[in-house]
C-alpha cells in the first residue's frame, strides 16, 4: 500500500485528529512492512516504547472501526475500510487508487463507536474496546458462529503510565503463556498472586499489551463486584460466539462445558482480576464464598482439560485448585510478586515529582515498605506534601515514633480482616517475636493448644497469603507488618482492660 495514501485514510478514520510524530513514524514504517525492532533502530526510539505507543494507536483505530486493528493486519483493515472513508475525500485520486487493490465491500460497523486520541508521550493505557456489530441470526444458537479473527472485549481502563521494572516477570509470563513454539508447553491457567498494592493488575495490563496479538480474542473482567459464575459466563460466552443471544444451558457445569468448547475452537486470553473477592474470609486459604464454588470447578477444568486458550487470574490468595494442580512443567502455574527494587521506585518517584535523599535513605524507605508500589506511592504523597520531597526529613520524623499512614493501614486491614482466628494468633506471636522463629519455637509460644499439623497448615496459609516470609526453615514478618500487628495487638489489649 502507498504510505501517503495509508496516512490519509488513517486521518479520515480518526476524523483528522493530529497525528503525533511517533504515530506518523509507526504508521509509515508499519505500512512499509518494517518490524518494531527495525523501526526502533531507524528512529532512535526504544522498541518497548514504540510497542506501547503502537498498541494505543491500534486501539484508537479499533474503537472507530468496530474491529480489532493491529500492526499485523493494518494494511488489510485499511483496504477493507477504504471505500467508507474515501467517500468523504474530495480528491478523486484518493478514491481511485484502491480500485485495483480490492473489490471488497464496506463491512458493517458500529456508528456509535467513538475515536480515542493518542497524543501524549506517556498516556494512560486504555483497555476499553467496544464490541463490534455482530449478526444476531437465530438460525443455530447451539453452534458457534464462524470466527472472525482478532477481536477484543476488554472492560477496564488501566493506567500503567508509572509502570516500571518487572522485565523478568513479564518475560517469564510470556514464556509460560505462549510456550516455545510448542502447544504442549503452554499454560492454560496462570495465577499472579501477591499482597494488595504489589502491582498484580498493572503487570497483567502490561502483559496483555505485549501478547494480545497472539490471540484471536482477549477478554478482561474484574471480579470486584463479585458476579456469580453464571452471570460471568452469561457475559463472556456471547462475546466468544459473536452472538448477542446464544444458547446458554441452565446447569452451571454445562455452561462451563460450553465455555471450554469455544476455548478449544479459538485462542482466547481471558483475564479475571481480583479473584480474592470471591474467596471466603475467616476460613481456610483458597476456599470460596457460599454460592461461588463453581469458580473452583471452572479453574480445575480449564487447567486439566485440553484447549488452546489461557486464563490469567490475579489474587491476593492462591485458589486451592491452583495449589493442587500447579507445577513448574504443568499447564497450571503461579507467580508470586515481590516488591520493586530501589532504582525502580526511584524512577517512579521522579516521575511523580522531585524527591531527594541519600542512597542509604532510599534503601531504608523501600525496604521498610517491602518495595510495595502502592504503599510507596501513598508515602510519596506525604513526603511531597509535608516534607517538600525530602526523604531524610520524613525518615527522621518516622524514626522518632513509628507510625502507619491511613492509606497503608486500610490496605493491611483488608488482608488482616480475612484471617482465621488461628492465623490471627500466629500473626500476633510472630510480631511479638520480631526475629525469625522455627515451628517448634513458635509452638512453645502459642497460648492455644495447637498440634504441629494445625500450626504447619496455618503457617503455610499465611505464606500463601503473602503475609509472612520463610527463610532456612524460619518464619518472620516484614518490618511494616510487625509494626502493624503490634499496633493491632496493643489496641486489642487496651480494649480488653478498659
Automatic annotation (TrEMBL):
GO molecular function: ADP binding
GO biological process: defense response
Region (Disordered): 94-128
Pfam families: HTH_VMAP-M9, NB-ARC
Residue ranges occupied by any NB-ARC domain in the UniProt entry: 185-276
All copies of domain vWA-MoxR associated protein N-terminal HTH, residue ranges: 1-80
Polar residues bias (residue ranges): 94-120
Coiled coil (UniProt feature): none
Domain of life: Bacteria
UniProt name for this protein: NB-ARC domain-containing protein
Native organism: Scytonema millei VB511283
Taxonomic placement: Bacteria, Bacillati, Cyanobacteriota, Cyanophyceae, Nostocales
Amino acid at each position: 500500500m502507498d504510505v501517503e495514501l495509508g496516512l490519509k485514510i488513517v486521518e479520515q478514520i480518526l476524523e483528522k485528529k493530529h497525528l503525533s510524530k511517533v504515530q506518523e513514524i509507526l504508521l509509515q514504517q508499519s505500512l512499509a512492512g518494517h518490524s518494531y525492532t527495525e523501526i526502533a533502530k531507524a528512529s532512535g526510539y526504544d522498541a518497548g516504547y514504540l510497542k506501547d505507543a503502537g498498541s494505543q494507536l491500534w486501539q484508537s483505530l479499533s474503537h472507530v472501526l468496530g474491529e480489532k486493528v493491529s500492526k499485523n493486519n493494518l494494511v488489510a483493515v485499511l483496504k477493507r475500510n477504504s471505500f467508507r472513508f474515501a467517500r468523504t475525500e474530495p480528491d478523486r485520486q484518493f478514491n481511485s487508487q484502491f480500485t485495483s487493490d480490492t473489490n471488497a465491500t464496506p463491512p458493517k460497523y458500529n456508528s456509535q463507536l467513538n475515536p480515542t486520541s493518542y497524543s501524549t508521550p506517556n498516556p494512560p493505557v486504555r483497555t476499553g474496546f467496544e464490541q463490534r456489530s455482530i449478526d444476531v441470526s437465530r438460525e443455530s444458537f447451539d453452534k458457534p458462529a464462524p470466527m472472525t479473527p482478532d477481536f477484543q472485549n476488554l472492560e477496564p481502563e488501566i493506567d500503567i503510565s508509572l509502570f516500571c521494572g518487572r522485565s523478568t516477570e513479564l518475560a517469564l509470563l510470556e514464556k509460560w503463556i505462549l510456550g516455545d513454539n510448542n502447544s504442549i508447553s503452554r499454560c492454560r491457567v496462570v495465577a499472579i498472586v501477591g499482597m494488595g498494592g504489589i502491582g498484580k493488575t498493572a503487570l497483567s495490563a502490561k502483559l496483555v499489551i505485549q501478547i494480545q496479538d497472539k490471540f484471536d480474542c482477549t477478554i478482561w473482567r474484574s471480579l470486584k463486584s463479585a458476579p456469580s459464575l453464571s452471570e460471568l459466563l452469561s457475559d463472556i460466552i456471547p462475546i466468544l460466539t459473536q452472538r448477542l443471544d446464544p444458547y446458554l444451558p441452565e446447569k452451571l457445569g454445562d455452561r462451563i462445558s460450553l465455555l471450554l468448547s469455544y476455548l478449544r475452537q479459538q485462542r482466547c486470553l481471558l483475564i479475571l482480576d481480583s479473584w480474592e473477592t470471591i474467596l471466603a474470609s475467616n476460613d481456610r486459604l483458597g476456599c470460596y464464598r457460599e454460592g461461588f464454588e463453581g469458580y473452583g470447578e471452572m479453574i480445575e477444568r480449564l487447567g486439566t482439560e485440553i484447549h488452546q486458550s489461557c486464563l490469567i487470574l490475579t489474587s491476593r490468595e492462591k485458589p486451592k485448585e491452583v495449589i493442587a494442580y500447579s507445577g513448574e512443567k504443568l499447564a497450571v502455574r503461579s507467580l508470586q510478586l515481590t516488591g520493586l527494587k530501589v532504582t525502580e521506585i526511584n524512577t517512579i518517584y521522579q516521575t511523580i515529582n522531585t524527591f531527594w535523599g541519600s542512597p542509604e535513605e532510599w534503601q531504608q524507605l523501600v525496604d521498610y515498605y517491602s518495595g510495595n508500589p502502592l504503599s510507596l506511592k501513598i508515602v510519596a504523597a506525604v513526603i511531597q506534601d509535608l516534607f517538600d520531597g525530602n526523604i531524610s526529613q520524613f525518615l527522621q520524623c518516622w524514626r522518632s515514633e513509628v507510625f502507619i499512614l491511613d492509606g497503608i493501614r486500610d490496605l493491611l486491614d483488608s488482608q488482616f480482616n480475612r484471617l482465621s482466628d488461628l492465623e490471627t494468633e500466629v500473626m500476633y506471636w510472630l510480631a511479638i517475636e520480631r526475629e525469625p522463629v522455627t515451628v517448634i519455637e513458635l509452638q512453645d509460644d502459642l497460648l492455644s493448644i495447637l498440634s504441629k499439623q494445625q500450626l504447619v497448615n496455618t503457617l503455610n496459609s499465611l505464606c500463601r497469603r503473602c503475609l509472612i516470609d520463610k527463610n532456612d526453615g524460619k518464619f518472620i514478618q516484614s518490618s511494616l507488618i510487625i509494626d502493624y500487628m503490634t499496633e493491632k495487638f496493643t489496641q486489642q489489649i487496651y480494649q480488653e482492660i478498659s
